[in-house]
Amino acid sequence: MNQPVVPLLLTLVLACGLRAQLTAESPVVEPIVTAPDSAAIAGPALEPEVYPLTHCLITGAPLGSMGEVVQLDLHGLSVQLCCAHCDEEAREREDLFRKTITKALLKRDGPDYPLRDCLACGQPLPRKPLPLVQGSTLLLVDTEACAARLAAEGGAWAQTVRAAQAAARGAASSNH
Asked: Pick from 15, 50, 29: which is nearest to 165 by CA?
């Protein structure tokens, strides 16, 4: 009866020793950055998002020239159209809107992007970070995995960037 207990005890002792050795040699893993609570973002008041285009991508007409501008959400991307007739075609051409709006935001906001670290992983942004758009806010990230994570977590990250932009504008205006 004592014989089966000995191998079991030996196995447990070896397993505990191996676990202690692995733990001692394991690299320290930094905690993953967690999504901000949009209500907890402090600092300067956030300005409304500014849509980066002035013309409808479907008709080429200036926004507002055919009545009230139509607002559309295409999987987290804010889109503005000249009229309701463009809605269906815009949904069919989401890739065109995503590429064009991302390019416009990179041109407008990229040079003065207020953050130096990736929002998802906390690592310094590479020389050529990946762009991601939430609403009409540009987010720059380190990797495709970081982009997927932020896209899945929703718009609170956009508020973090907008708060940093407002703080940077406030600091710039107080230096003058």
From this structure: 50
